[in-house]
Design goal:
By secondary structure, the protein is mainly β. Helix content is about 0%, strand content about 45%. It has two domains: about 5-135, Immunoglobulins (Immunoglobulin-like, Sandwich), CATH 2.60.40; about 145-230, Immunoglobulin-like, CATH 2.60.40. The protein has strands spanning about 5-10, 10-15, 20, 25-30, 35-40, 45-50, 60-70, 75-85, 90-95, 105-115, 130-135, 140, 145-150, 155-160, 170-175, 185-190, 195, 205-215, 220, 230, 245-250, 255. A four-stranded antiparallel sheet has the order 8-7-10-11, with no helix packed on it. Strands 16-15-18-20 form a four-stranded antiparallel sheet, with no helix packed on it. A three-stranded antiparallel sheet has the order 5-6-9, with no helix packed on it. The chain is rod-shaped, with a radius of gyration of 36 Å.
């Protein structure tokens, strides 16, 4: 946190008579800016900040500068050049740095005093700043065990493991192998760990892939899981009747055995 406190200022004023008079010293107080994190993603945060000035000193700040950076796995800090604004609040998305999910992000907001308040720059107050570190969202783990079980030539059930911190799962059904880039034929969101599919085509391969759903506050959704397939059996052909014998006839019916 930057320094805060009272900063006395004495100004000398030259008047028409040619003599110099002392103007009484007065005190003004500045406070570090206040950072508020609005939202987090897997690659950064959106944050707002304001000048934090006491009401009696509004107008003292001429500009604000925000910085952000991140801390890599080795503990090294990486900073991005500051962005300057003249408004009291600003929203900034920290993204595009190709950082890993769950990376600590450093936020820094700074304010610069208004020189006009201090007579051509004499006795300027220092530029106060505040900083904080916040961690970006971590991805949930993907589902790692998918177990299909055939029920009939036109149906199967599938179950999967529970993922810690998941609030639900989105299950995608594919025709074929369900490779990356394939389009699912259906998607179902559930908070359970099993589903049943019916009215499917016999003698057909289907595949399942799953995303673990997060709350978006502490965690982000997982990546798509691996693909697990199931090959439904063909329909069973019944054998035709054998040794059919006509056993009785009437004017209106025939009986076979």
């Amino acid at each position: 946190m930057g320094d805060t406190g009272d900063y006395p200022l004495r100004v000398f004023c030259e008047v028409d008579t040619g003599w110099t008079a002392n103007i009484d010293t007065w005190e003004r107080t500045m406070y570090p800016p206040i950072i508020a994190v609005d939202s987090r993603t897997i690659s950064g945060v959106t944050f707002t900040w304001d000048n934090g000035d006491a009401p009696a000193t509004s107008g003292m700040v001429s500009a604000y500068t925000t910085y952000w950076g991140w801390i890599d796995s080795g503990g090294t800090e990486h900073y991005i050049d500051g962005s300057t604004a003249t408004t009291q609040t600003k929203t900034r998305e920290c993204s595009g740095a190709n950082i890993d999910p769950g990376t600590p992000i450093i936020l820094w907001a700074q304010q610069t005093p208004n020189e006009n308040e201090y007579y051509a720059g004499e006795h300027l107050l220092p530029s106060l700043f505040t900083s904080c570190t916040i961690t970006t969202l971590s991805r949930l783990a993907p589902v790692s065990v998918i177990t299909p079980n055939k029920l009939s030539p036109s149906s199967f059930e599938v179950s999967w493991n529970t993922v810690q911190h998941a609030i639900g799962y989105t299950v995608y059904l594919y025709l074929g192998n369900g490779n990356d880039g394939d389009t699912p034929i259906s998607s179902t969101t559930t908070n359970g760990t099993a589903l049943t599919y019916t009215n499917l085509s016999a003698d057909t391969r289907y595949s399942i892939r799953i995303i673990s759903n997060a709350d978006g506050i502490e965690y982000a959704d997982s990546l798509l899981s691996y693909s697990e397939h199931v090959d439904l059996d063909p329909l069973i052909k019944l054998d035709p009747p054998q040794n059919v014998t006509l056993t009785n006839t009437t004017n209106t019916s025939l009986t076979f055995t």
